[in-house]
């Protein structure tokens, strides 16, 4: 399906619906991950857990949301959270106006809640591997620093985007990559972007209950990296959990929570929390 952000940028998403009376779920992706990666999870929400609908979508300049009318050098990573996230939420809410809504965000998809200024419309929000990208807090951060600054950054400057196959996911618009690189070089990540935007104030306005899940084998998602972002949700009730790959039955890492092999092991407890079910 196609819809537009407030500034007219076309976006593409996949809407999964069913006859259930459970919540609507907005699923927001990690950086450089296409929406199709989350489709099995979205289908499970609807088919196995009674959700009314689930929407996955591609941020501008990625996947199906690439538009020749917008210069990739002028697309900001902040646009993903401030413009695309609210637009996707508004489209999802058309399925059942006034129905309860929950959110799921992986990595940047968790940051997007804080930037969106629409957090009050969510009953609950599940964050998976949501961290600050400051490179010194990441396991293997020096390698990432070198890849971003010495390899990918010159390519983005020359051609206007970072192609897929460079070790940074499915490809990124040049403007997004410029933001990401600058933020990952700063101890405060994007919390020192004033006056461009007030990330501290936006995050402090969030009062939505949050469950932040991390995996002990995530090379990027160290306790320091997670704390560096979660501490800015100063007015939201935040619960944190660590997942052990031995208990899960296989490696989880930074992205693999959403692999369908975890349908029976990792997904049910997290989905139960989203639905507001009591935990054992």
Topology:
Elements: E1 2-4, E2 10-17, E3 22-28, H1 39-49, E4 51-58, H2 77-93, E5 101-106, H3 108-116, E6 124-128, H4 141-159, E7 161-162, E8 172-173, H5 174-184, H6 199-204, E9 210-215, H7 223-230, E10 238-243, H8 245-248, H9 267-275
Parallel strand pairs: 3-4, 3-5, 5-6, 6-9, 9-10
Antiparallel strand pairs: 1-2, 2-4, 7-8
Helix pairs in contact: 2-3, 4-5
| Shape label | globular
The secondary structure category is alpha/beta
Task: Name the poorly predicted regions.
Answer: none
Q: Which strand order does the major sheet show?
A: 1-2-4-3-5-6-9-10
From the N-terminal CA to the C-terminal CA, the straight-line distance is: 38 Å
Q: Average pLDDT value?
A: 92
Number of strands: 10
The biggest beta sheet reads: 8 strands, mixed
- List the helices and strands in order: EEEHEHEHEHEEHHEHEHH
Count of DSSP-assigned helices: 9
Based on CA atoms alone, the radius of gyration comes out at 18 Å
How helical, in percent, are the residues? 25-40%
- Range of strand content: 15-25%
């Amino acid at each position: 399906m196609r819809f537009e952000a407030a500034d007219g940028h076309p976006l593409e998403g996949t809407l999964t619906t069913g006859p259930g009376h459970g919540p609507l779920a907005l699923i927001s992706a990690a950086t450089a991950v296409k929406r199709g990666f989350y489709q099995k999870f979205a289908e499970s929400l609807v088919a196995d857990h009674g959700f009314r609908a689930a929407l996955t979508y591609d941020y501008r300049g990625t996947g199906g949301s690439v538009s020749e009318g917008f210069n990739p050098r002028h697309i900001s990573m902040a646009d993903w959270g401030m413009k695309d996230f609210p637009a996707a939420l508004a489209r999802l809410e058309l399925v059942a106006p006034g129905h309860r809504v929950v959110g799921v965000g992986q990595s940047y998809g968790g940051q997007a809640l804080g930037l969106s200024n629409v957090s009050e419309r969510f009953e609950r929000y599940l964050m998976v591997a949501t961290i600050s990208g400051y490179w010194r807090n990441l396991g293997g951060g020096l390698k990432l620093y070198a890849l971003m600054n010495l390899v990918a950054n010159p390519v983005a400057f020359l051609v206007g985007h970072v192609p897929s196959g460079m070790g940074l996911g499915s490809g990124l618009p040049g403007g997004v990559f410029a933001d990401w690189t600058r933020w990952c070089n700063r101890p405060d990540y994007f919390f020192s972007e004033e006056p461009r935007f007030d990330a501290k104030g936006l995050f402090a306005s969030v009062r939505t209950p949050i469950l932040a899940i991390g995996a002990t084998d995530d090379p990027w998602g160290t306790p320091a990296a997670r704390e560096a972002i979660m501490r800015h949700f100063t007015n939201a009730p935040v619960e944190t959990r660590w997942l052990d790959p031995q208990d899960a039955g296989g490696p989880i890492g930074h992205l693999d929570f959403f692999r369908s092999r975890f349908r029976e092991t990792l997904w049910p407890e997290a989905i139960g929390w989203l639905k507001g079910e009591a935990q054992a």
